[in-house]
Specification:
Blueprint (H helix, E strand, L loop, with lengths): L1 H18 L11 H33 L1 H6 L8 E2 L2 E2 L11 E4 L6 H10 L3 H11 L5 E5 L4 E5 L4 H4 L10 H4 L12 E8 L6 E11 L2 E11 H9 L5 E6 L4 E4 L1 H4 L12 H6 L16 H12 L4 E3 L8 E6 L5 E6 L7
Antiparallel strand pairs: 1-2, 3-5, 4-5, 4-8, 6-7, 7-8, 9-10, 9-13, 11-12, 12-13
Protein name: Cache domain-containing protein
């Protein structure tokens, strides 16, 4: 009788343990996420030093504008309409130039091309130093664009493009950036130069009190995914403060009740012509639990979340970035923390 009672108690305890609901205390800590974020930020933030150097180089060009115009290699670029006619290859060391047809003063725009031609070599130096960089560029209120490496602008851009209407220009202007410092644009967007979904670091260049140009360095979502997330075991994704997925492994994204991925591959999805990042927003997920998770991480600043009544989701952990409004999330982390 006593033995049977012991067996019964043991059975009840075991049954209770097996059915015990998961709690945040059961989840691993976020130290490994912190290490991943630090690794990403270490590589990404060095680009701030590069763009500050480019700004100082541009200042040198402005200060020596007259002498540079006198000795400028004016046949370096030949324009056909709005576009330079050089072939888009890196080996020549040339950028791709655009003078939009809506330039307020085409002659002054052409002079700007002449006295800033030395930017080509500076852009190439920065581009070659960092494999994560997709392109380096400048845009100006004179509607002059210089992009390295060169690309097929004639087939990708309109001749009357208004450069100052894009966020990679206006996010650096005085209204949006009164401190005149390097600015990371946290929202990824479609690059008009055909690089796909990108994020940008921009920096204004002032000539006295006038905004003379905006410098930019771009990295692609594809590169973030390849360099930092795909090499790790686990279901990882990065979101911004709006709940939009910046980058992520397909296994993590497909678990979140968002639109289906093209061939179950996030890389192919972000390259598709009909891709809209707004479709991949955690706050628009069909899953109530996913929406609550986004609320927990972004607005409540919590770092652990337990799902209830979700077929393929048990839990998630998160860690914020310092350099911009991003969060690294791991879906269904192993409970042993490994």
């Amino acid at each position: 009788m006593f033995r049977n009672s012991c067996y019964l108690i043991l059975f009840i305890v075991t049954l209770f343990s097996c059915n015990r609901e998961l709690t945040q205390e059961d989840l691993p800590d976020t130290e490994h996420l912190e290490l991943m974020v630090n690794e990403m930020e270490e590589e990404i933030l060095v680009l701030e030093k590069e763009i500050v150097w480019l700004e100082s180089f541009y200042q040198y060009l402005l200060e020596n504008k007259d002498s540079l115009l006198e000795k400028a290699e004016k046949n370096k670029y030949v324009f056909e309409g709005s576009f330079s006619n050089n072939i888009p290859v890196e080996e020549g060391g040339l950028s791709k130039m655009i003078i939009s047809s809506i330039s307020p003063d085409p002659q002054k725009s052409l002079e700007e091309v002449y006295f800033t031609n030395d930017l080509d070599s500076a852009f190439k130096v920065v581009y070659d130093r960092h494999g994560i960089i997709a392109q380096v560029y400048s845009n100006s209120p004179m509607q002059v664009s210089r992009v390295y490496p060169p690309y097929d602008a004639q087939n990708l851009m309109e001749p009357d493009i208004n450069l100052i209407k894009y966020n990679f220009y206006y996010e650096a202007d005085l209204e949006h950036n009164p401190e005149k410092k390097p600015v990371w644009i946290p929202e990824v967007y479609v690059d008009p130069a055909g690089k796909g979904w990108i994020m940008s670091l921009v920096h204004p260049v002032y000539d006295g009190s006038e905004l003379s140009a905006v410098l930019g360095i771009d990295i692609t979502v594809d590169e973030i995914l390849h360099r930092f997330l795909e090499v790790k075991d686990g279901n990882y994704l990065i979101i911004n403060g709006k709940g939009e997925i910046v980058s992520g492994k397909s296994s993590a994204i497909e678990a979140l009740s968002l639109p289906p991925l093209k061939n179950h591959v996030y890389r192919e999805t972000i390259r598709a012509d009909n891709f809209r990042i707004s479709d991949f927003n955690l706050f628009t997920s069909k899953s109530k639990g996913v929406r609550e998770m986004a609320q927990s991480f972004i607005f409540n600043k919590e770092n652990k979340f337990v799902f209830t009544d979700e077929y393929n989701l048990t839990s998630a952990i998160a860690y914020p970035f310092d350099f911009t409004d991003w969060y690294l999330i791991q879906i269904n982390p192993p409970l042993d923390g490994k």
